[in-house]
Amino acid sequence: MVRAESAEFLYSMTLSGLRSESHIRETTGLVMNKREQQRKIKEEKQQAAKQRAQSRQLAIKVGLFGVAPLLVLFVLFTLLNQGPTYSPIEIADNDHIRGLRERPVSIVVYADFQCPACATENDTMTQLWPRIRDKAHLIFRHFPVTTAHQHTWTASLYAEAAGRQGRFWEMHDYLFATQTLWSGLSEEDAEAEFDTYALELNLDIDQLHADMELEDVIAKVRNDQRGGNASGVRGTPTVFINGRQLARPTRDRIIEVVEEEFVEATGD
Description:
single chain, alpha+beta, Glutaredoxin, 2 domains, 5-stranded mixed beta sheet, 66% helix
């Protein structure tokens, strides 16, 4: 009887052990399967990320190949359509000259119509002009500092357009003489003020407005400033006499340099 019970007990323990071992194998298999799935998911994510990165790189390359030629064409078009610039020792066909071009001394002024210091320089030049006009000619070139002066670009266009009707210097003088009046106006009121100057000069106002939109007129102002930048102009007014930049363009200094350059040019 004891033997039978012992045999049954051993059988029961053996069966229980087999079941436990089977359960452990199943559990281990489940854990391994889960880890395998996680590994596969991670690999799939990495592969997808790699494909996305390759797609972005391809899109960038395609974009560059597509955009770069257009950008190059735009830059070339801009450069080719900017027009020529001239140094202070050159006289352009479209320069505005006061006095006789044949005079041996060339005074080139880069100025901004809304710059107070330029208005002062213009007063100085106007006062001394009778004394030097038999030795020199005066050239005005635009240098509108639009970051500081709201109406300077428009003023330059009015002067250039007036020049199309032979009245550049008259509009030039009007703009400087009345600078304090229009500098503080709104854009609309400033243009209305400029129109009154044009009417006082008997200009064709409709033609004036049309000329202000011409590419040649706009390019003249822009290229004057480009030429000034290339020549070392860093502020307004800047005065050159036969290519010599005057650090202090006072009345006495202008007369002094004009006399020096005249003597050097003529020997008198």
